[in-house]
Each structure stands twice: as structure tokens, then as C-alpha cells.
TrEMBL record:
GO BP annotations listed: alpha-amino acid metabolic process
PANTHER family: AMINOTRANSFERASE, KYNURENINE_ALPHA-AMINOADIPATE AMINOTRANSFERASE, MITOCHONDRIAL
Gene Ontology molecular function: any one: kynurenine-oxoglutarate transaminase activity
Keyword Transferase in annotation: yes
Keywords: Aminotransferase, Pyridoxal phosphate, Transferase
Aminotransferase class I/classII large domain: residues covered: 71-406
Superkingdom to which the source organism belongs: Eukaryota
Organism: Cardiocondyla obscurior
Record family assignment: Belongs to the class-I pyridoxal-phosphate-dependent aminotransferase family.
This protein's name: Aminotransferase class I/classII large domain-containing protein
Cofactors required: pyridoxal 5'-phosphate
Subunit structure: Homodimer.
Keyword Transferase among UniProt keywords: yes
Length: 424
């Protein structure tokens, strides 16, 4: 594939930063090479002399002298080389992507960093982007300043509807509109709706991407955090043409404060993201990268999956508790589906056209914070009757109280609307 058609002029104008390229060379140079090139501080005068963390099974993870020195230093922009190698093997095992030899990985500071860098490589001023009709707001904040045009694709309980997607693209092509270069998808445990796009639908969307020549960004931080029997087959594993940019995150499965994620895509797209990183924060935090490398080294792939199984049981139990509480407190007021993955219950409130004011004013006043549905639309001024509630962190008692308070908010809002209608 020729990626130059997908890349903005700004991205094309980026050039390698010489000092960053020298750091890359220093890492791959023969052992007897002496580098006076870089601006690296001397680790001997850093205040940290040992880094050791205890894991939840009681075992210790301690960095040896070499790892400690590396953890406290600059590394090549693409990532700490031993971690990069581990992640390459991880991706092959987790997704068996076709065309693996043509792909690469870049480590980023969380999925959002990968998302913003990839979107900014593709979306130029006024470019269209395909998005589901409600979607993770981290996309909007990146592309709105570029005056991107959102082409929203209606969804049902299985995600964006392929027939409608095709119809929208066909009409657009027919009328000579600018065609989108990319579609944003969050396929597993979707934020905010908690769905999992089924395999057949993933295949259908991928076929349309090939037909209408656009890339797919699959932002998939909940891939290992689903509650179904069957493992989801990622878009990357279906990608026979090199169209999928996969975003992984350690935020939900290891720690969000560690700020680590990684992008997997064909090498030219990874190189574009790498150049952007060279000009921004140079690389993802090395200490996090080295800790992550050590953890994956200790656990291996199977150990990581075992940890994910533990997470799934943990969050599934929370999901079930919140769903039961929603039935108890919100019965007759709302509709919702049981989330299949991720952290969120997406609650459609009956008879309220827009939940924004109810949540942002009355909710804040009454001591319950929830996310108003409109925050997940292309423009938060569009009315939305939904509310997103997280079951990830609050205690059972807090979830119980929060949903009781939500019921009170809804009743108060309905009463106010009723009085207004009677008055007019
Ligand atoms: C769909 C989605 N993408 C990206 C992110 C950001 O994740 P990270 O912490 O890896 O930047 C989130 C976090 O909530 C998310 O839900």
C-alpha cells in the first residue's frame, strides 16, 4: 500500500531529529563504541541506587545495575529495545497478524498518546473521519482543532452497522464528497457502550475499508478485559492489506499511572509516529518501560494472560453488582444492556431528551458524578439521553448510593419538565 496518500503534509515534512537518531545508534552500536555525542547525564550522581517493587503474589521485582542505569536514562524514541522485542513477540502470539514482517511497534505514553499521534499523522485541516455515533471523546479533542468533519455511523447493539457505513460512503462518493482516510473503532468493551463488535461484523467493516480504501484505528485498551467466553479476534489479526493501526494500553490491565501503551502498524506508519514523538516527549518514560519489561519477563505470555483472567473475574463481578443495582434503583426509568467488556454501564434514560444539565448541574449539586451521554458525541451540544456509569472503582456501597442518587436526579428532572410543560 502507498501510505503517502494517507499522511498529512505536516507529517510528511517531519525529519528525523539528529540527536534522537544518535541515541538509536548508541543502543545498537558494537560494545566498544564510545559515545560523546549525546546529552545523557551521568547515572552515578542520580539519587536512586536501587529500584525494587513487590508484586501481589509476594515476589520481588528488582532491577539489576544495568537495568537500573537504563531505567534512569534516555532511550531510543521507538522504545526500550528489550521491551520492544518482548512486545513484538507478544503481538505475534496474541494476534498472529498477517504480513507481520511489514509491521512494527512504537511504545507510547498510553493509548491516548498513540491515538493523538496517529490521528495527527492522518487528519489534516477539514479532513473527514469515520466514527461510531457515540465514541471515546479522546478522539474529538485531537481532531476538532483541525476542523475535522465527523462522519458518524449509526450503531446497534453490535456496534457500527456495516450496511449503513457502506451506504454513507456510496452516497458520499456519488456526490463527489471528500472521502475519509480513516475510521476510528474501539472494538472490545467499547467506551462508552460496553459492546463487543462480533467477528462477522468486524470482517464486514474490514471489507468496506478495503473497498473504500481507508485505514482503521482500532483503539483496544479493553481487549483483555472482556466478560465473554470467546476471545475477540482483533482487527489486526484480520488485516491482510496493512490497513489496521492497533493501539494497546497497559493502563487498564497493569496501571494507568505507568503511562504505557504501544502502537502496532505497518512500518511506514510507525516511522511517522516515531518522528512526531522525537519532536514531543522524546520517548515514553524509561522507568515504566523497564518495569514493564521485567514484569513481562517474569510472567511470560501465559502469566500475563493469567493476570487478565483474574481481572476479568474481578470486573465481571463488579459489572454484575452494578447491573443488579441499576435494576433495583432505576427500574422503569431507564434502559440498558449488560456490558460485555470494559468498565462502563451505558444507561439510556427514558423521557429525558438530554441528560447534560441533569448530570452537570443537579448531579454535581446532589453529590453524584456521572458522565453525560453528550460527552461521547461528535459535539457535546447535541442532546443525548444517556449516562455513563463506571463500575470499575467505586465500592459496592458507593455504587448503591450513586444509583439511588441517579434515580432521584431523574425523578426530579422529570418532575421539573412536567411542571414546565404544564406551565407552557
Ligand atoms: C477507548 C479508550 N482509548 C484510550 C484511552 C486512554 O488510555 P491510556 O490511559 O492508555 O492513554 C481510554 C481511557 O479511558 C479509553 O477508554
Amino acid at each position: 500500500m502507498n501510505y503517502s496518500n494517507f499522511i498529512t503534509d505536516v507529517a510528511k515534512r517531519r525529519r528525523p531529529a539528529t540527536m534522537r537518531e544518535l541515541t538509536k545508534k548508541a543502543y545498537s552500536a558494537p560494545k566498544d563504541t564510545i559515545s560523546l555525542a549525546e546529552g545523557m547525564p551521568n547515572e552515578e550522581v542520580f539519587p536512586f541506587t536501587k529500584i525494587s517493587v513487590k508484586l501481589y503474589d509476594g515476589s520481588d521485582l528488582t532491577l539489576d545495575d544495568k537495568e537500573l542505569a537504563a531505567a534512569l536514562q534516555y532511550v531510543p524514541t521507538q522504545g526500550y529495545p528489550p521491551l520492544l522485542q518482548t512486545l513484538r513477540e507478544f503481538q505475534r502470539r496474541a494476534h498472529a497478524p498477517p504480513l507481520w514482517e511489514s509491521r512494527d511497534i512504537v511504545v507510547v505514553s498510553g493509548s491516548q498518546d498513540g491515538l493523538s499521534k496517529t490521528l495527527e499523522a492522518i487528519i489534516g485541516t477539514g479532513d473527514p473521519i469515520l466514527v461510531p455515533d457515540v465514541f471515546y471523546p479522546g478522539v474529538e479533542v485531537v481532531v476538532a482543532p483541525h476542523k475535522a468533519e465527523f462522519i458518524t455511523i449509526p450503531q446497534d447493539d453490535d456496534g457500527p452497522i456495516p450496511e449503513v457505513l457502506r451506504e454513507i460512503l456510496r452516497n458520499r462518493q456519488f456526490s463527489g464528497g471528500k472521502m475519509p482516510k480513516v475510521m476510528y473503532i474501539n472494538a472490545t468493551g467499547t467506551n462508552p457502550t460496553g459492546i463487543i463488535i462480533p467477528l462477522e461484523r468486524r470482517k464486514a467493516i474490514y471489507r468496506i475499508a478495503c473497498e473504500y480504501n481507508f485505514l482503521i484505528i482500532d483503539d483496544d485498551p479493553y481487549h483483555f478485559m472482556h466478560f465473554e467466553r470467546e476471545e475477540p479476534k482483533s482487527f489486526l489479526s484480520l488485516d491482510t492489506e496493512g490497513r489496521v493501526i492497533r493501539l494497546d494500553s497497559f493502563s487498564k490491565v497493569i496501571s494507568s499511572g505507568i503511562r504505557l501503551g504501544f502502537v502496532t502498524a505497518t512500518a511506514p506508519l510507525i516511522a511517522t509516529v516515531e518522528l512526531h514523538l522525537q519532536s514531543s516527549h522524546l520517548h515514553a518514560p524509561t522507568l515504566s518501560q523497564v518495569l514493564m519489561y521485567k514484569l513481562l519477563e517474569i510472567w511470560g505470555f501465559n502469566g500475563f494472560m493469567k493476570h487478565c483472567m483474574h481481572l476479568r473475574r474481578y470486573y465481571k463481578e463488579r459489572r454484575d453488582i452494578m447491573s443488579a443495582l441499576a435494576h433495583k434503583h432505576l427500574n422503569g426509568l431507564v434502559d440498558f444492556n449488560i456490558p460485555k467488556g470494559g468498565f462502563f454501564l451505558w444507561i439510556n434514560v427514558r423521557e429525558i431528551e438530554n441528560t447534560w444539565k441533569m448530570i452537570m448541574q443537579r448531579g454535581v449539586r446532589e453529590g453524584v458524578l456521572l458522565a453525560p451521554g453528550a460527552a461521547f458525541m461528535k459535539d457535546s451540544t447535541i442532546p443525548c439521553n444517556a449516562v455513563r456509569a463506571s463500575f470499575a472503582k467505586a465500592s459496592n456501597k458507593e455504587m448503591d448510593l450513586a444509583l439511588q442518587r441517579l434515580a432521584q436526579l431523574i425523578r426530579a428532572e422529570l418532575a421539573e419538565n412536567y411542571i414546565e410543560n404544564v406551565d407552557t
